[in-house]
Amino acid sequence: MSLILSRLRLNVGQRDVRRDLGNPYDMHRTLVRAFADSPESEVRPFLWRLEPGREAQPPEVLVQSESEPKWGQLPLNYLIEQEARSWSPEEVLRQGRRLRFRLRANPTVCRVPPAPENQESPVSVARGNRKRLGLWKEEEQLAWMERQAAKLGLASVAAVVSSSARLRCRRGGGVLTVAAALFEGQAVIADPTALAAGIRQGVGHARLLGLGLVSVAPIRS
């Protein structure tokens, strides 16, 4: 099945856009309108990412889905412009091909809390007691990216952290803060099947907040 990549240029003069740019949960809630036929219907899955800002240009959102989005169901004047293309990772990705990639993700690690003093070893702590913690140091984020790249079937990875931030999401009366890092770099495809699966499913946690979408582009020799 082909994937649909939609690039949306947002109208910052529209009130809903300004609200959504300040809260990724609100942005997701708005985008959901294009993937649900009614408030009660099941939401068709999609991934999205707010693209790095460019000076004097309207903000852009990249959205990936398997189903056709209905952008006309977004609020009036929410979009300035939209464009879309279809592609199938399984048909395009080839072993040994070098590519560029971009991934904005939530780098985390699961750690077991320290054992009580009277406990001989932390090994006996139940797996369910592990806590997922955000990684904030650049070296830890790059190490996380290396692990994810291996799962994606990528080799000879050269990556940098283009930006790193504390992503704050307001929902109800609370605020959720997650680590968000933008990874960019080059790699060689070692396992096209694994890479295609990762592109379709996304990488890491907090995908609802615009994290986890993998973008790739071949490097022409």
Please characterize this protein's 3D structure.
The protein has five helices and ten strands, in the order E-H-H-E-E-E-H-E-E-E-H-E-E-H-E. The protein is an alpha+beta fold. It has two domains: 3-87, Alpha-Beta Plaits (2-Layer Sandwich), CATH 3.30.70; 91-218, Crispr-associated protein, domain 2 (Alpha-Beta Plaits), CATH 3.30.70. The protein has a four-stranded antiparallel β-sheet. Strands 8-9-5-10 form a four-stranded antiparallel β-sheet, with helices on both faces. Helix 1 crosses helix 2 (24-31). The longest helix has 14 residues, at 138-151.
Fold topology:
Elements: E1 3-10, H1 15-21, H2 24-31, E2 46-50, E3 60-65, E4 79-87, H3 89-92, E5 98-105, E6 108-111, E7 131-134, H4 138-151, E8 154-171, E9 174-189, H5 192-201, E10 214-218
Strand content: 35-45%
CATH topology of the largest domain: Alpha-Beta Plaits
Number of helices: 5
Name of the CATH first level of the largest domain: Alpha Beta
What is the CA-based Rg, rounded?
A: 19 Å
CATH superfamily of the largest domain: Crispr-associated protein, domain 2
Structural class estimated from helices and strands: alpha+beta
Number of strands: 10
Mean pLDDT: 91
What is the spatial order of strands in the main beta sheet? 2-3-1-4
Unreliable stretches, pLDDT < 50, 5 or more residues? 119-127
**CATH architecture annotation of the largest domain:** 2-Layer Sandwich
**What is the helix/strand order?**
EHHEEEHEEEHEEHE
